């Protein structure tokens, strides 16, 4: 994950790390390399420039040039800025309501259904009673996929294969959850290959009908800048609460992780790093930043 960015950043700061003293020139050239590394990772120019401008200001403020270990201090400053860029603090999910309703949205293939299973598994381990809901009325295979995952993790799945009204499936599922004493309902919605009006309207209607306490937007990090653009469109329509970045195990660049918070001003809450049900992590911006500069 993020190998390219990691390599380039580490190379950029390496020349500073071993030195007892660093000069203006060292700093300027390192900052330039850091900016280039960010842009190569698919971070847009303005964001990369803002980040590196702040690194430079902090380096001056904290008197990096006369510090005992200037290189280490400089790395720490970059880490702080990357942490801020990715959202600062880890953000929790809102599970208010009885049952609490979580709506999962995103494009087809982004990893929604896999995440729904992982998330249910994660919450189940905390002792909650979960109901997974298959709200994809277009692809029967999506229903089966969720049922298979549900069985694997021991979580009930609600589906109405004959019903072509996603809103009523969601409503019926909530009534069912109440009758079964479930604490949390996770609604896996349909996704299309590209953002389309029918799909957007449908998920908006589900949102209106069930008032979720948490809407999570799932996006494939491998799609780079497209991930950021899709996030923007979904956010305009759904005003979601958090982002789930999937397939980070295959993402060598990291552009989506670094840019999404800045563009949509919504936090990344989870990262998915594989197909297994356990491959899910709460997103900690500071840990990710240290990992990138590790
Ligand atoms: P959906 O159409 O959005 O519901 O997407 P799926 O959950 O069906 O996922 C699409 C494909 O991506 C499946 O083959 C998943 O096994 C795979 N997948 C999902 N999440 C991850 C992940 O974090 N890493 C990897 N490597 N594959 C994933």
UniProtKB/TrEMBL annotation:
Which residue intervals define the domain SRP54-type proteins GTP-binding in the entry?
267-280
**Which EC main class describes this enzyme?**
hydrolase
Asked if the keyword NADP belongs to this entry, the reply reads: no
| EC numbers | 3.6.5.4
Q: Which residues are involved in binding GTP?
A: 106-113, 188-192, 246-249
Q: Which reaction does it catalyse?
A: GTP + H2O = GDP + phosphate + H(+)
Task: Specify where it is mainly localized.
Answer: cytoplasm
Name where it's found: Cytoplasm
Instruction: Give the keywords, sorted.
Output: Cytoplasm, GTP-binding, Hydrolase, Nucleotide-binding, Ribonucleoprotein, RNA-binding, Signal recognition particle
Q: Which family does the entry's similarity section mention?
A: Belongs to the GTP-binding SRP family. SRP54 subfamily.
What's the entry's take on its domains?
Composed of three domains: the N-terminal N domain, which is responsible for interactions with the ribosome, the central G domain, which binds GTP, and the C-terminal M domain, which binds the RNA and the signal sequence of the RNC.
Q: What does this protein do?
A: Involved in targeting and insertion of nascent membrane proteins into the cytoplasmic membrane. Binds to the hydrophobic signal sequence of the ribosome-nascent chain (RNC) as it emerges from the ribosomes. The SRP-RNC complex is then targeted to the cytoplasmic membrane where it interacts with the SRP receptor FtsY.
Q: How does it assemble?
A: Part of the signal recognition particle protein translocation system, which is composed of SRP and FtsY.
What name goes with this protein? Signal recognition particle protein
- Organism of this sequence: Emticicia soli
